[in-house]
Amino acid sequence: MAKKPNRYGALVEKIFLDRYEPGATSLDFARTDIEEAAEALEISLPKNLGDVLYSFRFRTALPDSIVATEPEGLEWIVELAGRAKYRFSLVKASRVVPRDDLVTITIPDATPELIRAYALDDEQALLAIVRYNRLIDTFLGLTTYSLQNHLRTTVTDVGQIEIDELYMGLDKHGCHYVIPVQAKGGNDKIGIVQIGQDIAFATQKFPGMRCRAIAVQFLAGEVVAMFELTVQDDEIKVVEEKHYKLVPADRVDRERAISYR
């Protein structure tokens, strides 16, 4: 039996099914439609309307009734389409899943114990670990600096977005880079929506700089997976992936460190 959707799922399901017709590839709606759906279904309205859609954009699978309409090889995503406007779009199915056949690179942990003790959630902890251990520098081979975290900004034809952390980088030739970073806990998914938004922001706000979009994710065993990503032919593509494990300096395997060469 199909699983009955929860409150968020019921709201999104109604908004979608009220607009869907076979063959449709995009369905526009507005934030006010959430209120109308809640009234029609006679369910209490969530205090944070934005979290309803954020959940399905980045954390949770869409209800089974929506997934059932997806043609083979395609999937529905929820995109921003302007201020308080959204769109269900049918795109090529693409998911970034950490590889299980990559070597894990051990490096000395430079994270202050005080930061580890008081990090409030996985995302905050992950961003701090990446920052204090200069993992962006190690991964990209650049000198980088954190400009701002949890940057809320707007993108033309998209609306308001939030970038987990924004870095600026410099290479040995003096080339400048803009590096948007998204951080994901173990249960969150890396998808085309946020990567596309990050790249669109970098292209619009920093047209003279090269963009290198990064995603980082916690894996089991306190391993940090790092990805450089791009969007090609409406699909998310992995440019490079590395796995790092932070350990005390006295636990770094010297022979393995030599073998990395």
Top keywords for this entry?
261 residues; alpha/beta; Trna Endonuclease, Chain: A, domain 1; 2 domains; three-stranded antiparallel beta sheet
CATH class of the largest domain reads Alpha Beta
Q: What is the CA-CA span between the terminal residues?
A: 53 Å
Instruction: Quickly give the CATH architecture of the largest domain.
Output: 3-Layer(aba) Sandwich
- Helix and strand element order: HEHHHEEEHHHEEEHEEEEH
Overall description:
30% of the residues lie in helices and 35% in strands. The protein has two domains: 86 residues; 156 residues, 3-Layer(aba) Sandwich (Trna Endonuclease, Chain: A, domain 1). The chain is α/β, with parallel strands linked by helices. The strands form two sheets. Strands 4, 5, 6, 7, 8, 9, 10 and 11 form an eight-stranded mixed β-sheet that branches. It has a three-stranded antiparallel β-sheet with strand order 1-3-2.
Q: How would the blueprint of this fold be written?
A:
Layout: H1 7-17, E1 26-30, H2 32-41, H3 49-59, H4 64-67, E2 74-80, E3 85-92, E4 104-108, H5 113-118, H6 122-132, H7 135-140, E5 143-155, E6 159-170, E7 176-184, H8 192-205, E8 210-211, E9 213-219, E10 223-232, E11 235-247, H9 254-259
Parallel strand pairs: 4-11, 7-8, 7-9
Antiparallel strand pairs: 1-3, 2-3, 5-6, 6-7, 9-10, 10-11
Helix pairs in contact: 1-2
